[in-house]
């Protein structure tokens, strides 16, 4: 829980390809929408750095915020797994973003949030120290567009798919981001990039010729 003077952080965790595709990294059935044929693209590329950094993030969180699709996948899988990740997920509060008032979550410790996302995120910041959003691409795109996050963590894999849902699709809101730390690379060529939001939108200019050339 946060104290009265420190707001909690919203951290977004995404696996993505070099061309920005974040759809269904974990398996073929994760999100086959739009006839996506590369579901499970992350599995052939185990990476030691990714494993370590993912676990560091999971151990630091004290709440999960998930979109409906990712929540359903997690709720069906993790309660049955007697491993550290499953035990942590079971123990911490979970929030699922859904406008379905009939949703009756069965996973212990789950609360549905369906009102104004900005208001809900503000309340989460008051209740928790570090809330992680894992996967949940549709929800993530809204959080990014409305700047309702403190850190965007991207594990970028050296593959190009050419199709699939992207972190920043065409029409994404223009935004500035700041690299928090130098990139970190792993054994399979994945690179961890950590960004924080910056004020304003990208500026334009002209590349002047070098006066000393």
TrEMBL record:
Instruction: Please list the GO terms describing molecular function.
Output: 5-amino-6-(5-phosphoribosylamino)uracil reductase activity
The Bacterial bifunctional deaminase-reductase C-terminal domain covers 10-179
Annotated GO biological process: riboflavin biosynthetic process
The family database entries (InterPro entries) matched by this protein are listed as: DHFR-like_dom_sf, RibDG_C, Riboflavin_Biosynth_HTPR
Q: Which protein is depicted? A: Dihydrofolate reductase family protein
- Source organism lineage? Bacteria, Bacillati, Actinomycetota, Actinomycetes, Micrococcales
